[in-house]
Amino acid sequence: MSVNVFDTLKERGFIAQTTHEEKIRELLGNEKVTFYIGFDPTADSLHVGHLLQLIVMSHMQRAGHKPIALIGGGTAMVGDPSGRTDMRKMLTREEIEYNGSRFRDQMKGLVDFGEGKAIMVNNGDWLLDLNYVSFLREIGVHFSVNRMLAAECFKSRLERGLSFIEFNYMLMQGYDFLKLYQDYGCKIQLGGDDQWSNILAGVDLIRRVEGAEAYGMTFQLLTTSEGKKMGKTQAGAVWLDPSKTSPYDFYQYWRNVDDADVIKCLKLLTFLPMSEIEKMAQWKDAQLNEAKKILAYEVTRIVHGEPEAQKARDAAEALFGQGGSKENIPSVKITRDMLGDGMNVLDLLAATGLVPSKSEGRRLIQQGGLSINDIRVESVDKIITASDFADNEIMVRKGKKSFHRVILE
RNA sequence: GGGAGAAUUCCCGAGUGGCCAAAGGGGGCAGACUGUAAAUCUGUUGUCUGACGACUUCGGUGGUUCAAAUCCACCUUCUCCCA
Fold first, then answer.
1. Do A86 and A186 fall into the same domain?
2. Which nucleotides in chain B lie closer than 7 A to a protein CB?
3. C1' (B68) to CA (A387) span, angstroms
4. Whole domain around residue A350: which residue ranges?
5. Same domain, yes or no, for A316 and A345?
6. Which of A21, A81, A397, A404 is least surrounded by CB atoms within 10 angstroms?
7. Interatomic distance A363 CA / B19 C1' (Å)
8. With a 7 Å cutoff on the CB, does A350 touch strand B?
């Protein structure tokens, strides 16, 4: 008898809330269950928060259950108010469709959508053409405004303002679940913990309309030990799209997580066996760096594939450890024409985009934060000439950890 | 529909005619310390400039004034009270 996936998820610390803990466990242990997770295409790439959901999906799939990945082409037209203090920016239908297509491509790398193994649907297919009055009569009747207002997800919004369009979001998501229950026999909806209210809406709706029991379960949001959302950097979200967050930066993000978060991340974002993770949990101080390397490599591998993960690791080793190949360190190019007889450092930084403005570059240099070929740049007047380039290349370091090769062409 | 109030730099938030590129906090960046961690301390945080300084910014558009984030008009969005 193989391990019940419920126990796996529980052991790894995924589970936040369940509608019926025992029943869900039993169900997952006894039959092949169809379940769904929804993803609203509000940006042109998935991010780390989505990754966690997809990992769960993968765990479930490995255990023999059947995932439905729902792209929220319809719900994204409205915008989920859950967990937000302000209204989402309204997206056009074209943007949503484009974003949805990006989501689809990225998901294919993480979950097996082979014949009969998993399904991908778009709720735009049934939501966009709904008739308002019939929707109200069929679905709206089942929702109590009193109860909705009491729901946690509207709390902060009731203080700051909530528009009617967003208030409807819950009905739409509830309807999705009902629809998937009817069309695919989908019995469980999973999601981030911020989705709890929306999931309950669906569970209730199925009971009222179908007189049947459906289940819901939410997962821990990926937060740091301080309770902050993970997957955010000064530059914005950490994306799964390699053109938005390079595999190297992605790797570095995980390489640099706080000590306190490594083990949690290993459990949630990798498929390494618990026995191995438990071992790493015993590691202390500097030794934890090894765990971070493993985390970074594994997560990068899952998202970008083995070769990219190796390249990222290689680059990191070359910069921070010993060995490794410089090949894979991020680079920018500059032409000989631009360089001419010599170029001011600031101009070079600005021209290559290594610094967003010259003021910032000047500040960086004045504070001793810039090195070229490992030598600190002392003056903003420094001129870089072709002779500084060895093998047509110089290594520019900003601060402690940001490295770029500048290649002369 | 009627009335009251709000919109400030990445965020929160002070500023109510010149001393304002705009207090304070958060965040970011950099330095020291370290383990590519955290905590701490220091510096820095609109753009251009070697510097003096110049230029753009306080929801939008016009206006008053020698001078406007600050005053006036209209517009937009949001909040609150009444219906």
1. yes
2. 27-32, 34-38, 43-51, 78-80
3. 54
4. 331-408
5. no
6. A21
7. 27
8. yes
